[in-house]
Amino acid sequence: MDLSPLQKARYEYSPKLPGMLRGGISEISVQVGAPTESVADQEKIKALFPNTYGKNEITFVKDSNTSAAKKQVVGVILSGGQAPGGHNVICGLYDAIKATDRNNVLLGFKGGPSGLIEDSYIEFTDEYINAYRNTGGFDIIGSGRTKLETEDQFKIVTEVAKKHGLTAIVIIGGDDSNTNAAVLAEYMAAHNTGVQVIGCPKTIDGDLKNEDIEASFGFDTATKTYSELIGNIERDANSAKKYWHFIKVMGRSASHVALECALETQPNICLIGEEVAAKKMSLAQIANYIADSVEKRGNNGENFGVAIIPEGIVEFVPEFSKLIAEINELLAGKKTEEFNALPDWAAKYEYIRKGLSGESFAVFEILPGFVQQQLFLERDPHGNVQVSLIESEKLFSEMVRKELEKRKAAGTYKGKFGSQHHFFGYEGRCAFPSNFDADYCYSLGYNAFMLIQYGCTGYLSKVSNISKPAEEWVAGGMPITKMMNIERRNGEDKPVIRKALVELDGAPFKYFEAHRDEWAEKTAFTYPGAIQYFGPAEVCDLTTRTLALEKGE
Q1: Closest alpha carbon to 320 in 346, 296, 278, 284
Q2: pLDDT one-digit tens code per residue, 471-518
Q3: What is the CATH number of the domain that holds 288?
Q4: Residue-averaged pLDDT of the chain
């Protein structure tokens, strides 16, 4: 296989470890901190996790290694969507395993959690691992979205673990995957299997974080990748001066990606879903807000601009959420077949008009025709609306166009409006990891094995103080149950890791809020350019604006 010069160079990059993890396994000791409790619903979470709840915080320090020596056979899986740096988590885990004892074994189970159930695996070797160091993607073993949550699944995993002599399983994933890791850890402990379970925090959406987990891996690289593309578009917009670019970026449950990209590129508009929900904004209000910027700029002779829209924006709009709920109810069960049997869209439209409340139908009516049809024709296997498929960038572009026509007729808008549309998602999920993500992920994997070596289970690998140089990073672990609360899922109360939404009183949003009015009217674009891998640390190891602002830097 021919390799690009960059790929060859990245194989040779040596990721930086936190200071306390440097210098050899024999010099890593453990410091036990305070006991923990869940963020909410303490009694319920404690009852569900009697064997793993309330464990102590763990920090690693420079001192003599006091862990018990034994052969370790560890299994690892990648779970959920791809995020840059996943390969380095596995590489760090492998290197720590082999540095402890060359006879230790790391098995990679293929295709995500289903690999554990189907016993589909590969035993990692130096040669195999070396081909994936510092590279993007999850192709080292693949990923999947199977959930490990049933008694039958746990029994199968236990048998697979017993067959291979597994001493531990590492699950690399997001909030749902690490919730599953906590449940699996509890099962393994309750059944005295001797198998430890450790999680690693992954998601480019940035919503797996809290006072302990300062960032999920992949967020840095993905947002830098999207910001480069947005900056390129801004430069093009400022050159051609004839289009408004509506850019949707990943982030269905939270708007961290959109906010970070806005902080990096200073677009004219960036919607933040959490603010839309807090202010109970309607679709029309959002369209008017964007149109105000278009009008001001157009009347100043600047008929171009950039608007960033988070993927899940429509789910934050109260009237739209109500519409979705009514549609799901309208087509529940066999009603879907009845709807699909109607001869044409006109007949289906009348069915919809009669079935929705007047309030929801009024919302439905203002939607462009292509969005109306997406709501009813693009449905998941359960008959529910697939909100993630709604082209919200085109929805708001069309609504803004109609609003501007009214303003032009009224004589208030004198400009011209043309639009282009983009969705940046897959472009960032498997990018070459930034130096930060390469270092952070390698540290998470290396640290995960230290948690295993010291007998921890139900813990999340934790590396903090990450806005500082890697030498000052702090490695340790926190019980996953500390992050959990009870939420209603599919009609049942479930223990889940609480998602971290954009905090409207947090420093990143406050900075954005203080500057957005200026950005909306003026051309204040910034062009971050491509991720830099070689050069001065202040360029190559730069952290996200979000993290820097959260840390007051």
Answers
A1: 284
A2: 999 999 999 999 999 998 767 889 999 999 999 999 999 999 999 999
A3: 3.40.50.460
A4: 95
How far from each other are the two terminal CA atoms of the chain, in whole angstroms? 44
d(CA 111, CA 150): 19
Quote the number of domains for the chain. 3
415 shares a domain with 384 = no
**41, 503, 448: which is closest to 274 by C-alpha?**
503
Q: Helix axis angle, 369-377 relative to 318-330, nearest 10°? A: 50
Phi, psi of 154 (to 5 degrees): -65, -35
H-helix segments, 35-137: 42-48, 86-100, 113-118, 126-130
- Catalytic: which of 95, 175, 176, 205? 205
Among 523, 531, 530, residue whose Cα is nearest residue 236: 523
205 is an active site residue: yes
Q: What CATH number does residue 195 fall under?
A: 3.40.50.450
Q: Cβ–Cβ contacts within 10 Å for residue 408, how many?
A: 16
pLDDT in tens, 241-287: 999 999 999 998 999 999 999 999 999 999 999 999 999 999 999 99
CA-CA distance, 211 to 39, in Å (whole number)? 11
My answer on whether 40 and 171 are in the same domain is: yes
